[in-house]
């Protein structure tokens, strides 16, 4: 979530690489986040770009701050 918050829109491949997980694993996780209305995905040619769902942006930002403060 913090990566998407910082980058605003990130491709599937770039996100999988930054998280060091397989494309299939990322697909599963992003499906869960999309079903929870936390992220959106849009096709950009042959690439899928993910971004945070604007509807819950305030809540997501609060969670990111709490997580960063607890480290």
Question: What would you say this structure looks like, in words?
Answer:
With 71 residues, the protein is α+β, with helices and mostly antiparallel strands. The chain has a single domain (2-69), classed as Winged helix-like DNA-binding domain superfamily/Winged helix DNA-binding domain (Arc Repressor Mutant, subunit A), CATH 1.10.10. Helices cover 56% and strands 20% of the residues. It contains four helices and three strands. It has helices at 2-7, 12-19, 23-35, 57-69; strands at 10-11, 39-44, 47-52. Strands 1-3-2 form a three-stranded antiparallel sheet. A hairpin with a 2-residue loop joins β2 and β3 (47-52). α2 (12-19) packs across α3 (23-35). The longest helix is centred in the middle third of the chain and has 13 residues, at 23-35. It is globular and about 35 Å long. The two termini are 16 Å apart. The mean pLDDT is 90.
